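In this section we walk through a basic example: taking a raw amino acid sequence and producing a predicted 3D structure, encoded as discrete structure tokens. The instruction is simple. Fold the sequence below.
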Amino acid sequence: MYKIPYTLPGGDKEGMRLIPISEVAAKDEFLTIKNVSRDDQLGSHRVPPQLMGIIPGNVGGFGDAAKAAEVFDANELECIRSSLLSVNEWAGEEVIRFREYRLGSGEYNLVSKYLKQHQLSKK
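The resulting token sequence is shown next.
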């Protein structure tokens, strides 16, 4: 075991451990550790897995990606946009602006734009 000094306020000495890779392989499956780490990262960034291209590990899947995107926008991105817009007040002019959030529509949808250009060029 590696000896590294650390402090966990209110924690016990076994609360956090560094385990050499050779011991990890002996004690646990690599895939289990990888999946738990992935889930921890997803949770910390608060992005729905279906928006990041994560393949579900069960038959049920993650649900409707469009609804997840709308909820993510309302619950997470709106707060960030609001904070960033306060820069406009600080600067005394509009230096930051956001387009209205629209899922998969509008002129900024690259797939639609590409398809429209290809259809026009075939005629």
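Looking at the output, two observations stand out. The first helix runs from residue 21 to 27. The two ends are 70 Å apart (CA to CA). In the next section we compare this with other chains.
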